[in-house]
Amino acid sequence: MLFDRARAVTPGGVNSPVRAFNAVGGTPRFIRSAQGAWLTDVDGNEYVDLICSWGPMLLGHAHPEVQAAVAAAVARGTSYGTPTEPEVELAEEIVSRTPVERVRFVSSGTEATMSAIRLARGFTGRDVVIKFAGCYHGHVDALLASAGSGLATFAVPGTPGVPASSTELTLVLPYNDREAVTAAFAEHGPRIACLITEASPGNMGVVPPEPGFNEFLARTCREHGALFISDEVMTGFRVTREGQWGLDGKPEGWVPDLVTFGKVMGGGFPAAAFGGRADVMHHLSPEGPVYQAGTLAGNPVATTAGLTTLRLATPEVYDHVASAADAIKQAASEALTAAGVAHTVQATGTMFSVFFTEGPVRDFADASRTDSGAYKAFFHAMLDAGVYLPPSAYEAWFLSSAHDERAVTTVLEALPGAARAAAAAGQDA
Ligand SMILES: Cc1ncc(COP(=O)(O)O)c(C=O)c1O
Predict the structure, then answer these.
(1) Domain boundary among 250, 284, 312
(2) Is 231 a residue of the active site?
(3) Does 298 share its domain with 390?
(4) What is the overall mean pLDDT for the chain?
(5) Catalytic residue (one of 131, 263, 329, 376)
(6) 123 and 28, same structural domain?
(7) pLDDT at 62
(8) Are residues 217 and 344 both part of a single domain?
């Protein structure tokens, strides 16, 4: 079996842990090809894809225009290590849609947040970083941190391999908790370089900011001379053409100093970015003293894929994804209610998740109450019915403009049986 071969040469048989099905049990499907809303595994089984590569595939798989643009780019050579036109065009596109004035490309969301934090520290001359529990910003040492013993105490490493010295300048606070933020700034204000937050968290399941929370964070940072970093790696160009900032009506009050992007802007290729205020970005090498670089940063194939995707992502695309998401959200809730399963569906724009616990879920502690046994049964029943959900109870479900009636109907038909499986798992527990 391919999984056995994979495990013989790769830890856990996968190249990113959540793919391994550890949280739900069983064997990950190895996908051979994908088209539109559908994945086909190496045994020829088909699944409606509700992962969409963890966000990037807003237009569905193998979109013909993206493929054509990529094929043309590949034919011109795949990497030169020089500046190219597609990078400029993609940067112009991003600057025209978001609050950032300058943008720098990297190859992954992790690099984007890592570089944004370095720049914030270099710009402010300060060292402390604030993040929220349950927000994921990639595997940056300083951000793989768990809360210390008190709210305003420094964090401890969240994984072996991260030295205590890498997290001793990180504060981890509960999400949506203004008092905790105020207390942290009161105690450490002059040392705080930046606060980083997902613009609307999707990595503990979807936990939207309470009204005004992002504005509050931006204002508090400003008052203390710290930078506000909005991580839109997941939400950027996905929840709207302008990301979460657009969804929230582009409030003046929460224009971030720095923003990180990834996923959709790479069109399914390894591309990500960070950007922000011109005076802050001016501190970046080679204009300024803060060093940052990348061999494949701004790669012409990846930026062509991203640019083509963003240009094709019209308002109609977002409307379509929204109506498909609405149908699935509603049907999931109805099926779980009918089966008597405690749950809550939370969304930001078209990105949503189903928690197997009563809502509202407003932070990581609430999310942790989700019944992972019920999710496990639900997940496998959906998989058996031809729907590939994220193999973890703490992830957003993603759709694309290729999720047509056939794909959505397949999901709707699978839900009642999966809800009954979740109910039965609850009784067994
Ligand atoms: C909000 C957010 N930031 C950063 C990252 C890290 O991105 P990457 O996996 O490309 O390193 C992710 C990945 O899921 C993410 O969701």
Answers:
(1) 312
(2) yes
(3) no
(4) 96
(5) 263
(6) no
(7) 98
(8) no
